[in-house]
Design goal:
This protein is of the alpha+beta class and 370 residues long. The chain has two domains: 149 residues, 2,3-Dihydroxybiphenyl 1,2-Dioxygenase, domain 1; 196 residues, 2,3-Dihydroxybiphenyl 1,2-Dioxygenase, domain 1. The protein has ten helices and 17 strands. The strands form two sheets. It has a nine-stranded mixed β-sheet. A hairpin with a 5-residue loop joins strand 7 and strand 8. The longest helix has 14 residues. It binds fe (ii) ion. Fe (ii) ion binds next to strand 10 and strand 14.
Length: 370
């Protein structure tokens, strides 16, 4: 697509992911985990000390990734209600835009449901404009405009200085965020991203692509105009036993974000570091590596470290990718992380689905949910 063509069709230009906010039971402890285990750095804080009465929010950063962890300070808070129902999970997928008010007008004009009316936040460092619309489950997209802001994060937050600063692990940016939706809900949400957000469906997987002996799912990948934002949408499919997506829906008690994929440029180094810090990953059988090169062709990496760490490889027409999936990062079998290194490939590791889902089903069976 040429640039001029993109200008005419992309009514919602997005510069990237601004932040991802999780609503959790204990943000102070969660922040410690993301610093210690994943190597995030302390960036900003809001809470009673800054005049916020009902919540505490910790903003963490690693290269281009910003995570906010927020927990409620009283039982009447909607955050408490959200946590009671879902456990820890993603509330906001915030998008960095040039014009937040226009993004709100255009998306709500196309049928999007507004959740946060266009708002301007000010402090001595300038202004941030923001607005929000609903997506699947209780997840919302925020539009964040920060071109007139020079502060550390956003008005309302103060710089968070900490004496505890574990080193980063090489995580660079959010590659994609996957949503799990209910039975027969994938296509309506695909249509939402097409009609309301102007995204395109760039890849589809049916239940034959993504099934094992037992569990199955279907998935369609939605991407914005410049490809910086990719949202695969999964729904369960019928299999011999319960779909992994259904297990998520049961335990999250609704639709929500299934995984956040974060990119690294040295997956062996990053994963070795994450494992040393206690991040747990899914393990495929070591036989996966016996015929790996027959399946994916020549790769630059040595096979041995990949086998040792359980890193998966897949190839498409444009190159290859290396990826690995964490176990859920909370006690409910809900949200997890993917670590991904792209070497040309723009796809999502379809060739790994079978091996991966067999590993996942083993975990599911251990939980008594298969
Ligand atoms: Fe993924």
């Amino acid at each position: 697509m040429s640039n001029s063509e993109q200008k005419t069709t992309d009514f919602l230009p997005i510069n990237g992911t601004d932040f991802i906010e999780l609503w959790v039971g204990n943000a102070k402890q969660a922040a410690h985990y993301y610093k210690t285990a994943f190597g995030f750095q302390s960036l900003a804080y809001a809470g009673p000390e800054t005049g916020v009465r009902d919540r505490a929010s910790y903003v963490l950063v690693q290269d281009k990734i910003r995570l906010i962890l927020t927990s409620p300070l009283n039982s009447n808070s909607p955050i408490a209600e959200h946590h009671r129902k879902h456990g820890d999970g993603v509330k906001y997928l915030a998008l960095w835009v040039e014009d937040a008010f226009e993004a709100y007008e255009k998306t709500t004009g196309r049928g999007g449901i507004g959740t946060i009316k266009p708002t301007t936040l000010n402090d001595a460092d300038g202004e941030v404009k923001m607005a929000g619309i609903k997506t699947y489950g209780e997840v919302e997209h925020l539009f964040i405009e920060r071109k007139n802001y020079k502060g550390v994060f956003m008005p309302g937050y103060v710089k968070w200085e900490s004496d505890y600063n574990p080193a980063p692990t090489g995580l660079l940016y959010v590659d994609h965020c996957v949503g799990n939706v209910g039975w027969n809900q994938m296509n309506p949400w695909v249509k939402f991203y097409e009609d309301v957000m102007g995204f395109k469906n760039i890849l589809s997987f049916d239940d034959k692509d993504i099934s094992t002996e037992y569990s199955a799912l279907m998935s369609k990948v939605m991407s914005n105009g410049n490809g910086y934002i990719k949202f695969p949408i999964n729904e369960p499919a019928e299999g011999k036993k319960k779909s992994q997506v259904e297990e998520y829906l049961d335990y999250y008690e609704g639709e929500g974000v299934q995984h956040i994929a974060v990119a690294t440029k040295d997956i062996v180094k990053t994963v070795r570091e994450l494992m040393a810090r206690g991040v747990e990953f899914l393990k495929v059988p070591s036989t996966y590596y016996d015929d790996l090169l027959d399946r994916v062709g020549k790769i630059e990496e040595d096979i041995e470290p990949l086998r040792e760490l359980g890193i998966l490889v897949d190839r498409d027409d444009e190159g290859y990718l290396l990826q690995l999936f964490s176990k859920p990062v909370e006690d409910r079998p809900t949200m997890f992380f993917e670590i991904i290194q792209r070497k040309g490939a723009k796809s999502f590791g379809k060739g790994n689905f079978k091996a991966l889902f067999e590993a996942l089903e083993l975990e599911q069976a251990n939980r008594g949910n298969l």
